[in-house]
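Listing S7. Sequence submitted for prediction.
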Amino acid sequence: MKIYNSKTRKKEEFQPIEEGRVRMYVCGPTVYDNIHIGNARTFISFDVIRRWLIACGYEVTFAQNLTDVDDKIINRANEQGRSAEDVAEEFSKKFIDVMHKANVMDPDIRPRATREIGPMIGMIKTLIEGGHAYAADNGDVYFAVRSDPTYGEVSGRKIDDLMAGARIEENEDKNDPLDFALWKAAKPGEPMWNSPWGEGRPGWHTECAAMVHRYLGCPIDIHGGGSDLAFPHHENECAQASCAWHQGFANTWMHTGMLLVDGEKMSKSLGNFFTLEEVLEKHSAAALRLLMLQTHYRSPLDFSWERLEGAENSLARIAGTVNNLKWAAAHAEGTPDTEPAAGLIAVTERASSEFESCMNDDFNTAGALAAYFQLVTEANTYLDQAGSAVDEEAATVCAVSIAGAFALLGIELPQPEEELPVGLLGVAAGLVAYTGDDVNEAAEKILAARAEARAAKNWELADAIRDQLRDMGLIIEDTAAGSRIKYAK
């Protein structure tokens, strides 16, 4: 397995620190609002990465924080006349709920910043004692960026370039304009905790570093997040942890690409800003995951409602193929031709191999999905050619392989239609003078009557059977392996 390491800017053979185990941390949201689909892209991507590592046999410990104290939370609370705690609690619950709707697995560990103040203060003390941080006269504590000779390695930036190219807020309390806050002195109306430097709250960059060390230890195998976090957040996390514990922080850094909407940056001013919640009100989580995973996690992703609708249609086609394979296997008649059946087994094995190869190549979900889209096309060709003489084993193996691959990516295929209820079939049964209670027998009688009418060129009766079923919300689907009754879409 090879993973692209943002720090080294190249793919590297993945070697976990401890054989068979992976310790992984992905930065969670600042809980002041509903997350948007750009956030969701990161969380879905790392959910798939985690799923694949588990499928490969690794014991994965996955941690993701909730930042529940921050300037954004405080500002939102002040705007609404609420406490910061109330705002954070509301949007923490909403985040967890919408992750469940998106079929994102819960982390093994979900620390909240407000419950980890002690470890943060302990880390800050260690940094001050080591000469990497200092307390200012105003009650703030700052990290001394130039005390870390490796600063800039995570994001690929140099200190001199940062000084020359960045607009840095002037602050007379800092020893250096590049230094960043580890602890912020309390202001009226803000959440605050006691510390050796007076009442205050932690800086944003301080939180994750302390929580990673407490719950996973340092270094960890994988640290992830959106590309917008590489600098300054991840750079500053790494600097603190490396200087505090001198053990390294993360062996592999992973970052997801930006999400665009119809080719433009998402923003409220452009009217193209969508929350995950509102997208999932209109479309399935499976379709959204499929759309997102058709682009490699490191590449920019272009979202559009048209593409999402296309993903829904693709899902229906894939699910239809799986259902047709299973149905054809269950209703196979005659002696199957061994050569096409062997061919279907061969292309199924090829798709599975390509899927595994792509996923092991920096989690290339786009290539993995392409392999199974091709298999779906070839499976449909096989069904058309085989007719009713389908090879039961080949069709079943192919169906299981397709469904299994999508399940590994957390994409739940639409379920086949339920068995038709007796009450509905009872209405249609009058057409064929059939009053039995067995649903499947009733369906077969209806289909047989229609087939006989068509064979006798009694189009009026055949159309009447079709039309009455349609009026009840049912359709007759003619396939190479025979006909069947389904619910209309």
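Caption to Listing S7: primary sequence and predicted structure tokens for the chain studied. The two ends are 41 Å apart (CA to CA). Residues 418-437 have pLDDT under 50 and may be disordered.
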